[in-house]
Structures are given as C-alpha cells and as structure tokens.
C-alpha cells in the first residue's frame, strides 16, 4: 500500500450536502461503499428544484427535504478548507482532518452578485464588507428562502434583478405571496439564452397576469438603503427609482471551484471531469454544478442526478460512463392556469441551412417552434426550439433532441400530435 | 340451458361463466351463454366462444409418448409412468432430491396445484418447485403483501369498478386480453366515472379512456411517483386516512418529492400537463381505484412499481373503503388460486410461508408427515429453469410452455434440452413437450372438474361436461400413479372434490383461507370469495373495510424510488421493445394456435413500429424485419401504426421459433418477486435479409 499515509482509508468522502452530494452518498452506499458526507448547512438536505414552490407557499420547507440517507452514510457538518492530495485527506475549518479513499466534490455554485452601487458597504472591510443590506437576498438556498419568508410581512413591493430561469421563478413565487413585483432584466427579453423574442413576450404577458411587471433592457445601477442599511429601493441606469422593501438578486451562478483550484486540479469554468466524473487525480471526482464535463456546465438538477448515479456506479467498481445530458430547459409557472414552457438548443436560425417551423395561436397564448438544420448528408437535425403553453409533443421533442438523430419526417410532427397520425411523407 | 353443464371458460382469470351443451359431431359440446353468472352475465369473447374447438380430436394428444431412439413414440400408460418414475427416482438417487425439479402453471386447478406442491414436498422431497405464475403475478403479489398483508388480485368484486369515481388502469389492455371485462369500464363511464389508461401504446383499451398517458416502457414507477408528488404539492393528501390507517408515510412522501414533475416528464416522456390532469381527475373524484396489469409488473422493478401505485392510493385515502383501492388484473385462468396453494417455491397451501415453523407444522399435520421432512424454500421460476442441466437434472412439468413463454427463451430451450430427463404433462404437444422424454396426455377443462379462483378471489367450479377421449387421464391420476410408483400411494386421491376437502383443511387459518368453501356452496352461491374460514361464513367480497391484513391492521407505505430498466437503449440497441398480447390468442398459444377461427383472426407474430421510426429505418408495412437484442433475433412482418411511441417497438409473444418475442426478454429479475423484465429491453430493428 501507499507508505505512511492513511492508506487503509477506503471510504468515500463527499464534500457538499446538496442534491448531487446527497445522491452520490445514497447511491454509493447502496453499492456497498462506506460514505462520509461533509456538508456546511445544518439542516436536512433538500430538493433545490422546489425552492420556488416553498417560497410561493405551495408547501412547507420540510416537504422539500430529501429522503434520509442510509445508515452506511455518516453525516458531519463541517466546512472543508483544503484538500491534501498527497496524504489523501481533507482538512476542515474545525481543525479536523478526514482521510478518503475517494473524494467527491459536490460543492455546487454560488450566486453571482452584480456590481451594484450600495450592494456592499465600502466603509467596512473583509467579510463584513460583503454583508448584504437588510432586505437584499440571493435566491439559491433554503436559508435564503427562509430569510425572504421571514422578511415578507414588511414587504409591499419587491424588485427581482435578473430575468433568467431563476429570476422568473423567484418573481412568480413572490407574486404568489401577494407582493407586487417588478422584474428588472438587463437583456432585450426574458430568458434570452433559452427563448426568442416572441416566446419571451408571451412569458412576460403571463407573468403580468400573475402580478409581475417585467422591465427589459433595464439595468439596475444602485441599491438604495436607509440609515440602518435597509433596502428602500433601486435606482435604474436612467435615473428612475423603484421603491422596494425587498430585493432579490438572481443574475447567475458561479461554480465553487476554489478547493479544486487550490489543490492543483484542472479547473476551467468548473472542475474538469472526464466521462467517469473523475478529475485529473484518479481519487478525486466532481459532480453537479461545480463540475465541467466536455466543456459543459449544466447547473441543473437533472444532469446533476444523472452524474451522481454514474459516479456511484464508478465508485462501486462498475464500468460506467456519463455521456452528457441533452435535456430540455423546463419552466412551470403555477397559478390559476399553469403555464408550461420547454426550450432547448439555439433560439434563432444561424444561417440558410436552418429552417424554422412555427405554430402560434394568439388566442390560446400558445407558441411552438423548432429549428432544424440540414446536415452534410442532407438530413434534417433538430437544433433548437421552444414549446410554450402547449406541451403535448414535449415527449417526442425531448426524445428527438436527446437522440440527436436525423429526422425522417416533416418537423411538424414535433409540434403537433395531430400530424403524428399521418407519420412520415407518403410514398 | 337445462341440458347444459354450467362451467367456466378455459382461458383467462376473469373465468367467465358459460354453459356446455352436448353436440353431435367431432366437437362434443357447444358453448352457450350462462347469463346468471354475475361476472360476465353471459358475454363471451371470441376465445371463449370458440373454446370448444380445443376439444376436437385432431387438436390434442390421446396417447402417452415416450422418446425411443431420439423420437417420441406412442406408448402405454404403464410404460410411460414407469419411465417417469425411473427417471425421477434415478436422478434423486444419483444427485440428491433437489436435483429433481417440478414446474407448474397458473392454468392448473386449485386441486392440481395443491396436489403438485404436495407431491413435490412429500413424494419427491425436493425444494425445486416453482411455476409460470412467477412470470405473471409475482410482482403484484409481493407489492400487495408488502402493503396490505395479503395478496388477492382485486380486493373487491369487478362489479364495484363501475361505481368508482376514477379508475387508473396501468399497463393493461383488457379490450384485447379480457374483453368481457370492458363492460365494467363502459359502465364506469356511463355512470360519470373517469378512466385513465397508462400504456406506451394507444390500445383499444386506451381508446376508451378520458385520458391516455403513454410513458416510455419501464417508467411507470416514475409516473406514479410524479403523480404522488403533485398530490402532495397540491395538498390533496387524505391526512386523516394516512394518520388512522397507514404507516410509513413520511419516508414515502420524501421519496415522492425527490421526483419533481419536470424530472418525471423527462424520464417518462409524459407531458407534465397530462400528469397534472391525471391528478386532477383522480383526486377530484369521490373515490379512486388503481388497477395494474403486466405492464408495470413484469419489470425488474415490478414490485416497487406496484408499491408506487399503491402509495398513490393510500396517500389519497383510496383503500379499505367501498369503490376505492388498488387491485391487479390477474392473467392466467387460475393465476390467483395457482399462487395460493403451494406450487410456489417459498409457499405452502393457504398462502402460508414455507419458512414459517407454525405453517410447516399445520400443513405437515394435514399431510401426516413430520414437519422437519418438508424441504425449505427453493429457486424462483427463472432461476429454476436456468439451473436445468446443472443442479436440477430431471424435471416434471405440468401446464406450462416455457419454450415460448420464458424470458431469453432460446437459452431456456437449451437448458430444457440439457436435462437428463424431462416429463411433460399437457393436453397438446406444445413446443416444450416436443423436447420431453415422456409426454402424458391429460384431461382439460370440459373433461374434468375442479375449482379455479378468479381475479376477484372468487372460488368457482369448473365442471366436467364430457368424457375425455380414450387414452387421456387427469393430472390427479398422473400424480397418484407416480406417487404409487415412488412408494407413497396414500394421500393422493384422484377425485377432485376429495382433494378440495383436504385443501380446505390445509388452508384453514392461512391468509387464503378456504376452510368454509365447499363444492355445493360454490354451486349455490355463484362462487365464494376467500377468506371464508367457516361453513357459515359468507365469504369476503370486499377486503380491508375494517382493517388491513397486517399485524397492526394498518396499510404500509413503502418508500420507493425510480431506477432505469435493467437494459436501457444505447447506440447498438437504440430502441425499446415491449411485449404483449393480441385479442385472438392466449399465452404461449398452445391452446389457441390450434383453433382455426382464432388463427385466421391472428395468424402470426408481427412487430409494431411508428411510421416516423419506420421511415427512418426504411421499413414499409408488411416488410419482414429482424428485431435484434443481446439475447436473440426474431423475424416478423412490420406493422406500422401511429398508436405506439416512436422510440418503442412492440411484439406479441404467443408464437414460437423465429417469431418468439421472448427470445429478447431480459432475464433481469426483480429483487423481491423474482419477476423477469418482460416489458422493457433494448433492441434494434433491421432488414431481415
């Protein structure tokens, strides 16, 4: 064995008690590995996907808790400060050291905080400087959710900064609590990574019905606070001021990679892993939001679970590989009549080889679009699309997108179940 | 009707009542209606109506066959029986008692199933006995026991179904497999109830539904979890019922919440709005029922899948009260009774457990043997078949055709071929009988009397209407004759009623208690529902109204989570294959493929493809195409239909040889029920030549 080290250590140490870490721990234990899970958060692990539902008051926080881990998994609350690869151990902020046979980094991501004037208190230094004003929250953890919840009784108006998936979800949740919400989005339209202008316009219309006022091309310049550093509103780039007792910042996330970086592992945007979810150290693995696989940072729960399952099989000695995920981005706005939205791939044609097929029904508020690209063999391939308000074909679309196969029939069958009865072109 | 013998159909678990009237001609009886029998009220499907054709002389065996110089040749009964006794005894002597195996069937009467189990344990002293019901009902049985403490297909009479508010039928196609049952679904709709059908194909049954959900094969578990998630999220749980009549809810709720709707949509391919609509229909109705069939059950996670659907019922208070609950649509004619009386590897009569000392003592006393002489639990069906030629070297097989019906059937045919000795008792020369050293021609249906227990747990009486042809004996006579030759003649009566009287005593006090049921009562009462512990007990049409059959009387939630099929599609095998049935054929086809009218209606196997898939593969309607899996290859004509998912192909499994869908079936087993994964495996489709 490896002389002098904790060479007899065979257990799996998982850093991070979020969904990915929880799942690796559960599945690896199910495959006979002894697991130690090191998490920073005191409370039970929860399903992050359900945060907006908890905030919206659809069900209490404990309902979003993840299932208890099997007995084989030991759980400890600790913050890991360093990886000692030579000794194969991690050092924690309480001074303890924990040896590992396999180390799994499931450290997730942190919210990105934009450079808004007044967001940080420049009179202070160190950690204190980064303390947000009262009433300003990121929307990333159950703790954030609880903090927002506790603050809500004093709130009449809220501003959400960021019109991506997370910002839209947060805005809808706040509106469901009876708060009037302004969603301030810097881009030309909502969710521009996923949606074209028309879909975004329909989404904004639906949000308006739920009580969310959407402002696009709207840059927030500063956070306004009172003498006690409580938020009172925001000032926009054009000088206009919006009153708000609550500000939610949801402009994006950044993978937490500092442990990996400090340990000398390859880190690009995330911790780089191969198809076995393993870093360039064969004893160190990474899954979930912190991991970068084939150049992709997913930042979504579905792929995180898929990665965790593959890694658990690898840790169990199986020959498993993660091929990547080709999932649709899904958004559900619950309310009186729920709005469903699915989007994937490119949002607009890239050139003459791309063909757009659209079905829009203004009276029903539905919009369906696919973009197909002619490849060198003359076959059509699905490269992007959106379904809004009518998801009848979402299963077919998801399967086609996932399989990435040449389409054999007119793309219309991807947009309506009616056409599927006639199938492919007649012969 | 007066001159007709009142009996039941020879086929499925509905056990429709019918009359058999003597007729002149090659077929000795005519099937006539028996409108007074409540389950089918006279209605019959094409299989039932044409059932008398299996009695035609040409269709069946009338002489024992013994293999001589590699060929099966007619022989006398004594010769054939001597050969079997020598084959079984010789193997036991040489390799030990467990080297002799017994394989039964869910079509056997209660009396035969009981006698076969007793024969294995008492005469052969082997633990190696199981039956084809393992491929049929075992997941539903395991899931039912786990939740309710007892396994009876339906805890209510079929007549209750139209009085439910909403019925979810998961992976069942009664319009083709059990047509007279469909009247209950139609009545349900006439009464204003809602029907939801879950099936990867838009079957004739799905056509009847208010809502059809078409998940990918092998994802019914995720679908059920997704529905439960929405039930919780929308606050539609029945907290009072959960608190008073169940245990284990918190863990089950946690597991369901980990399956959020958009994730379930990605796994199943069922659009979330449809999932939401299903929950709205199910929870919006005054009462709800979930009925599962082989679709969700015949999976390597079949038991957990059943549990997930039961959990949905329990969380919404839909169990243990009238017009609500979970049930399964049993398949084989005596699929229910056949799993209660001891032909299962781990079981003794009355649904007793073979590893329970009290159960052993009770049954041993009825049998007049020392409890310690009873062998312990043996291997499950697939594992038993898999061990043929290895640990098990001689096999007695009754009422089953595993060459067609077992998973990875090519391999199982090889295993059967590698036995030192195989004896088959059957009505016809089935594909499995063709491999035997000795084949015994036995009585069937209209030629014999015995009880069957239908999908409701109703014990019914099959009556003899005609004398068997010369040269044919009953299975009970076979067992008696073999017991005599193997040195234990007592305890094997050949009169069915006498066997039933002993079965009553053996089952007394067990979960499936028949003690109070008698032939006269069955005749007088149109069947009696078990449990029926005393002669003056009315029987139990509805279970669980006061308490569940668990030690504390509460139903048990089981926390389950979704997992992929044992074999998921990949680059080499990119499609999912699922298998099933067609209207005009039954099981391995051993009976129905010998009926001309049925063969004309359904002459052979085929593979169903969606037109979009067919276009991509360059396949046209009627083209002969090969379906290729890791376990085998079949060649059948292509049938194009938009009623199937484009990522899935379907084959019916009734035919042998290169059309045999079960060549592909993955023998990955459910960890609890030992059910193989019939309903989902990975294949590719290519041109046949």
Automatic annotation (TrEMBL), chain B:
It holds the Pfam family Molybdop_Fe4S4. It comes from Kitasatospora paracochleata. It comes from the Bacteria. InterPro entries: Asp_de-COase-like_dom_sf, MoPterin_dinucl-bd_dom, Mopterin_OxRdtase, Mopterin_OxRdtase_4Fe-4S_dom, Prok_molybdopt-oxidoreductase. Residues 2-56 form the 4Fe-4S Mo/W bis-MGD-type domain. Its EC number is 1.7.99.4. Gene3D superfamilies: 2.40.40.20, 3.40.50.740, ADC-like domains (2.20.25.90), Dimethylsulfoxide Reductase, domain 2 (3.40.228.10). It is an enzyme of class 1 (oxidoreductase). This is Assimilatory nitrate reductase catalytic subunit. SMART domains: Molybdop_Fe4S4. GO terms for molecular function: oxidoreductase activity. Keywords: 4Fe-4S, Iron, Iron-sulfur, Metal-binding, Oxidoreductase. Transmembrane segments: none annotated.
């Amino acid at each position: 064995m490896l002389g002098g080290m904790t060479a007899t250590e065979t257990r799996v140490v998982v850093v991070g008690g979020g969904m990915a870490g929880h799942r690796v721990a559960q599945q690896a234990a199910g495959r006979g590995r002894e697991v130690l899970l090191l998490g920073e958060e005191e409370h039970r692990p929860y399903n992050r996907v359900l945060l907006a539902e908890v905030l919206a008051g659809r069900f209490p926080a404990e309902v979003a808790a993840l299932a208890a881990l099997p007995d084989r998994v030991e759980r400890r609350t600790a913050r890991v400060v360093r990886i000692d690869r030579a000794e194969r151990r991690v050092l924690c902020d309480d001074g303890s050291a924990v040896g590992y046979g396999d180390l799994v980094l499931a450290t997730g991501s942190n919210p990105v905080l934009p450079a808004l004037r007044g967001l940080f208190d420049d009179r202070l230094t160190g950690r204190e400087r980064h303390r947000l004003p009262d009433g300003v929250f990121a929307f990333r953890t159950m703790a954030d959710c609880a903090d927002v919840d506790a603050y809500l009784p004093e709130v009449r108006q809220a501003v959400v900064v960021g019109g991506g998936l997370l910002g839209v979800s947060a805005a809808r949740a706040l509106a469901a609590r009876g708060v009037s919400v302004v969603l301030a989005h810097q881009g030309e339209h909502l969710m521009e990574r996923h949606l074209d202008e028309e879909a975004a316009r329909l989404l904004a219309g639906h949000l308006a019905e739920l009580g969310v006022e959407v402002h696009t091309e709207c840059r927030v310049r500063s956070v306004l606070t009172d003498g006690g550093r409580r938020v009172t509103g925001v000032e926009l780039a054009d000088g206009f001021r919006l009153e708000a007792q609550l500000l939610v910042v949801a402009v994006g996330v950044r993978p937490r990679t500092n442990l990996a970086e400090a340990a000398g592992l390859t880190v690009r945007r995330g911790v780089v892993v191969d198809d076995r979810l393993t870093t360039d150290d064969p004893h160190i693995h990474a899954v979930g939001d912190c991991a970068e696989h084939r150049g992709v940072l997913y930042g979504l729960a579905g792929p995180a679970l898929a990665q965790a399952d593959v890694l658990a099989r690898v840790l169990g000695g199986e020959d498993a590989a993660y091929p990547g995920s080709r999932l649709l981005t899904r958004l559900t706005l619950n309310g009186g009549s729920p709005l469903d939205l699915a989007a994937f791939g490119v949002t607009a044609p890239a050139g003459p080889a791309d063909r757009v097929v659209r079905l829009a029904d203004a009276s029903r508020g539905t919009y369906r679009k696919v973009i197909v690209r002619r490849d060198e063999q003359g076959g059509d391939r699905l490269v992007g699309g959106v379904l809004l308000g009518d998801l009848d074909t979402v299963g077919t679309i998801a399967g086609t997108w996932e399989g990435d196969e040449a389409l054999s029939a007119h793309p219309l069958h991807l947009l309506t179940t009616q056409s599927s009865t006639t199938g492919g072109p007649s012969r | 009707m007066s001159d007709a013998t009142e009996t039941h159909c020879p086929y499925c678990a509905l056990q429709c009542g019918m009359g058999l009237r003597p007729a002149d001609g090659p077929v000795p009886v005519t099937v006539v209606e028996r409108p007074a029998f409540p389950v089918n009220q006279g209605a019959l499907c094409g299989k039932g109506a044409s059932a008398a054709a299996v009695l035609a002389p040409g269709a069946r065996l009338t002489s024992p066959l013994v293999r001589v110089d590699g060929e099966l040749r007619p022989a006398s009964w004594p010769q054939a029986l001597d050969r079997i006794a020598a084959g079984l005894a010789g193997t036991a002597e040489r390799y030990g008692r467990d080297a002799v195996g017994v394989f039964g069937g869910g079509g056997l009467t209660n009396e035969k199933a009981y006698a076969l189990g007793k024969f294995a344990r008492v005469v052969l002293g082997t633990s190696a006995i199981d039956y084809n019901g393992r491929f049929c009902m075992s997941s539903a049985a395991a899931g039912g026991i786990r939740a309710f403490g007892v396994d009876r297909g339906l805890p209510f009479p079929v007549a209750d179904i139209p009085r439910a508010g909403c019925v979810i039928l998961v992976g069942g196609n009664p319009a083709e497999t059990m047509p007279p049952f469909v009247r209950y679904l139609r009545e349900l709709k006439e009464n204003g109830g809602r029907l939801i059908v879950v099936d990867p194909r838009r079957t004739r049954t799905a056509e009847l539904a208010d809502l059809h959900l078409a998940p990918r094969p092998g994802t019914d578990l995720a679908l059920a979890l997704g529905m439960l998630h929405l039930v919780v999220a929308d606050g539609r749980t029945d907290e009072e019922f959960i608190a008073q009549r169940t245990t284990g809810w918190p863990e089950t709720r946690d597991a369901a919440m980990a399956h959020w709707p958009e994730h379930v949509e990605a796994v199943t391919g069922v659009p979330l709005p449809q999932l939401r609509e299903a929950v709205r229909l199910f929870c919006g109705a005054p009462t709800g029922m979930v009925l599962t069939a082989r679709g969700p059950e015949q999976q390597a996670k079949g038991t957990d899948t059943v549990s997930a659907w039961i959990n949905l019922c329990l969380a919404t208070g839909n169990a243990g009260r009238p017009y609500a609950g979970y049930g399964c649509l049993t398949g084989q004619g005596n699929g229910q009774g056949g799993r209660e009386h001891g032909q299962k590897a781990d079981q003794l009569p009355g649904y007793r457990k073979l590893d329970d000392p009290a159960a052993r003592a009770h049954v041993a006393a009825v049998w007049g043997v020392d409890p310690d002489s009873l062998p312990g639990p043996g291997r499950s069906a697939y594992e038993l078949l898999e061990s043929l030629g290895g640990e098990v070297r001689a096999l007695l097989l009754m009422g089953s055709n595993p060459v067609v019906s077992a998973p990875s059937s090519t391999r199982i045919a090889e295993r059967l071929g590698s036995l030192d000795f195989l004896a088959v008792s059957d009505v016809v020369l089935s594909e499995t009988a063709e491999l035997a050293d000795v084949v015994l021609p036995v009585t069937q249906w209209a030629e014999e009397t015995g009880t069957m227990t239908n999908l409701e747990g109703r014990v019914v009486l099959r009556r003899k209407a005609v004398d068997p042809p010369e040269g044919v004996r009953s299975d009970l006579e076979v067992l008696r004759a073999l017991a005599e030759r193997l040195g234990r003649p007592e305890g094997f009566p050949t009169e069915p009623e006498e066997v039933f009287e002993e079965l009553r005593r053996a089952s007394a006090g067990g979960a499936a208690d028949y003690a109070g049921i008698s032939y006269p009562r069955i005749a007088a009462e149109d069947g009696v529902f078990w449990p029926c512990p005393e002669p003056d007990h009315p029987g139990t049409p509805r279970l669980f109204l006061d308490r569940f059959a668990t030690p504390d009387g509460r139903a048990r939630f089981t926390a389950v989570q979704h997992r992929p099929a044992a074999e998921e599609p990949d680059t080499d095998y990119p499609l999912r294959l699922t298998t099933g049935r067609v209207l005009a054929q039954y099981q391995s086809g051993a009976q129905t493929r010998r009926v001309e009218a049925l063969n004309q209606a359904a002459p052979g196997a085929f593979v169903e493809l969606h037109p979009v898939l067919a276009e991509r593969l360059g396949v046209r309607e009627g083209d002969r195409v090969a379906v290729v899996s890791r376990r085998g290859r079949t060649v059948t004509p292509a049938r194009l239909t938009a009623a199937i998912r484009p990522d899935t192909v379907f084959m019916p499994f009734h035919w042998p040889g290169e059309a045999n869908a079960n060549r592909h079936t993955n023998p990955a087993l459910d960890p609890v029920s030992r059910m193989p994964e019939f309903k989902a495996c990975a294949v590719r489709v290519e041109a046949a030549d």
